[in-house]
Amino acid sequence: MKDHNLVIYNTLSRTKELFRPMHEDRVGMYVCGPTVYGDAHLGHTRPAITFDVLFRYLTHLGYKVRYVRNITDVGHLEHDSDDGEDKIAKKARLEQLEPMEVVQYYLNRYHHSMEALNVLPPSIEPHASGHIIEQIEYIKRILDSGYAYISDGSVYFDVPKFNKDYGYGRLSGRNIDELLATTRELDGQSEKRNPADFALWKKAAPEHIMHWPSPWSEGFPGWHLECSTMSEKYLGEQFDIHGGGMDLKFPHHDCEIAQSVAHNGRPTVRYWMHNNMITINGKKMGKSLGNFITLDEFFSGSHPLLEQAYTPMTIRFFILQAHYRGTVDFSNEALQGAEKALHRMLDAYRRLQDLKPTADAPVHDIAAIERQAYEALDDDLNTPVAIAALFEACRIVNLINDGKAQASQQDIDALKALFDTFMVDILGIVPDIAKDTAAGGSGSVKPFEDAVDLLLEVRAGAKRNKDWATSDLIRNRLSEIGFDVKDTKDGWEWSLKK
Ligand SMILES: [Zn+2]
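Above are the sequence and the zinc ion SMILES. Below is the predicted complex in structure-token form.
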């Protein structure tokens, strides 16, 4: 276990707190995953990448991390409310598919996008529909504790009663007295005692295609319930970290807290973490605003708002250039800036692999850069500062490469270790070539780089033999594929075209 002082901003206490897990060497972490009824979009990238970096960093520090990220495949109704159609059932009806066909189709696509972004798969990815029995048991205990009631085959959480005993809405800081006093009765919600109450179980209307038997009715679980149930099943009655997007604080996470406390008599989560949202040209992203861009559209450039295609690694780098609690505004200009910066870093990383020592003793203080990078990540995952530290290392690499600075073998080894640890392992930034070229996006970058070098070696041999046709063929074809090849005095240099 590495010595560290990781500090995390806890949304519940609204302060930065020293992170100490419940168990010395293990961390339990739960993050709300996608509702799989459409393609992954820019909004999905931020929680996925933020908590991927946290997962990677905790693992790097030596913890055994159990990372649970759920798949919502039932119970998430339109407008995040207790009424309206189930999002997945609606898609299934419109496309004349089985609901589970919709789930599988979009889940496969989600996984593919996540893999392209170099987001590691979580340890467990439980489906809400696979945990109906557990959810029913969970509801029974909340009923026993007196914080829920049955109404016409549905079960509702009694918000006013819970609020009186424990306080409701603390995470989001909503003024609940006001909410309880001013929320007006809505049509079709008359089976609730108070409009602020939320469904734990909903009786299915005859046209509702996803339903299960329960002691109360043929129906389905409420959306908030799955996270309380599945986090407890896989991480225990108390666990370390619960994450998600800021938009989930209310009602979703405040409802999760209420359910868990009603169920166990005490809070479940020790550190609540929320990433901020992404806006597009200053506006919230929304289907009706015409600025809703899927990840595939980013990767292919096929959306009217996009001036070009952006690689998955450019998107990842763009997200990590901002602190996760700060806002990020998407624009072509900002993404093109991220693309340039990413290329600068990856070019330096590639040059570093071929550096030769020119000094006998260390010349550079690489340990200081390493300390900066650790301090940045320990400070509530400050990725932009960690990236700035890596750029300082890039500057040194370029000086050495240009012959403007000396370096010993120790310097070169320390630089390599620095990049491999922080850029590759923790920030998850790797050259896009592997993700774009390797079938299915798996595999490491090295073989592809080696293959390009091999071709250029063949070309050098052809040139020595004055076989200009072969030499030109290789260079021209590589150029068509997207490589810039430069002849240098010691051989060649190549990079991906910008
Ligand atoms: Zn959730």
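The chain has three domains: 7-275, 302-433, 445-496.
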